[in-house]
Structure prediction request, 592 residues.
Amino acid sequence: MARVYGNHKKRILIVFFVLGLLLVALSFKLAWIQIVKGEEYTDKAIAQQTSDIPIEAKRGAIFDRNGKELATSATCYTVWARPAQIAEIYTTEEKLADVSSKLAVVLDMKAAEVKKMLQKDQALIKIAKYLDRDTCQKVRDLEIYGIEIAENTKRYYPLGNFASQLLGSVNDDNMGRSGVEQEYNEYLSGVAGRWIKDTDINGNALAYGKDQYYQAENGLNVVMTLDEVLQHFAENAIANGLNETNADRVMCLVMDPKTGDILAMATNPGFDPNEATEPPTKAAKEEYEKLSAEKQTEYLSSMWRNPLVSDTYEPGSTFKLLTVSASLEEGITTPDNHYYCNVGYEVPGTGWTLHCWSDVPHRDQTLTEAVGNSCNPVMMQLALKMGITPFYDYLEMFGITANSLTYIDLPAEAMAQIQLEENIGNLELATISYGQGIAVTPIQLACAVSAIGNNGVLMQPRVVKELTDEEGNTVKEFETKKVRKVISSKTAKEMRKIMEFVVSEGGGGNAAVAGYRIGGKTGTAEKPSADGGYSDDTYSSFIGMAPMDNPMLTVLVIVDSPKGVQYGSTTAAPIAQEFFENALPYLGIAPN
Prediction:
């Protein structure tokens, strides 16, 4: 047997040592790849060999109570890219730039922007969305490896700037951002699907690969209580009112007092939900572009906000309807009781004298006439005779407290701003009696006054009555809800007569429509100022019902900061009159 001597033995040992080191290094490298980086490389392999295209669910439509389409979803297309696949095919800078340029021309984008996206370190990236069929076909004709196209939907509002704060809008991901779109997003959005298939390096489907298609589950349709025709009447009336009064904004809320159904809810200025991130006018756009990013966000949030639900205001004399209702129910007065007004009224135990809105004393008058005259001293006397605790009890019954909501099915409902009962004295009670020193949401006041038209029963308001599937079958119904009995039927009947007197013979005459029995109350409240006092601006308003023998409509109109004449009787009442003139015949109510 040959023996190994000297240098030969040394060389063999060195070779074995080197091979051992290489084997150990290889083992460490293999362990690093399979154990430490195994999950990452597995994900990359799956991403390269699998096409996973999201299938967007079709968002449900929104209809008015009669089936008129208010929001729908139109078919469009999205272009996706797989940067890893593109990098393997278009290996040089020139090739990538050429592909980016061609794609940018078709998509009307900047080539540098497209190129940057194609180089992203992501498995799948969205290049462009909301494309029409023709543009989609042009992208396909480019035959760019690593580019995929998915069919999806875009939200479309056929009537544009119409009930915009009520309907709301969706964000770039087609999710509800405000209004009904946000409140009912869970039902409207549906469940997205996916198309998963095995592909080669170029993204082509493999003949022997797996192909899994998970069908998207489309969203449900929302059927609102809104009446599209009544909404048009309200929109037109407040647009004319805005032009006449030059106010900052005008709002109108219409509901059925017997069911709580919201029949119209309009605010002007509004916005076009098809372009929800753009101000509504050219002048507003110019001012918007000057704002910082933070201020722009605040501007958009304010534009989308529904003030009829989310904002509070001092109601002024419209609140007197609740003070009188409580007094009649408590038995401390009757419609024929007499009161005296000499303009000023000294609040007992305070040393303060509060005044009527009028410089001319109303002198002797019945309670009915006092409401028609909107006499502040009479309201003070009623509230003080009733007492703080009973008065607050009635406010709670009407749903107006510091922690009460109407529970309307809309987002961001605000609560009333009212002092705690233990902090109230005679002076505070006196001012609240005629609607100052208290702030309510418009929807709270409308619901409270609607109880008068519903024989004393307070209803929970609603804007949606049912959900339906794609075939129109009802999937879920939302029933009307009685909250509580607030006042007796007798008191409610007496109040309706008083409200009718206000329009026929009192200060609400500008809301009268020949041949129809209309009742209501005007209000003019100074707006609080930043320094804690009151400014010269006002909330001028009117709340009314018709027809008074069988109320079918409650209408609240609020004119925010009218210029010139500020009284609710001359600013808000004519807007309500225009609405009543159109709405009552439409509802089939014949003039008497």
Summary: The first helix runs from residue 6 to 36. The mean pLDDT is 90.
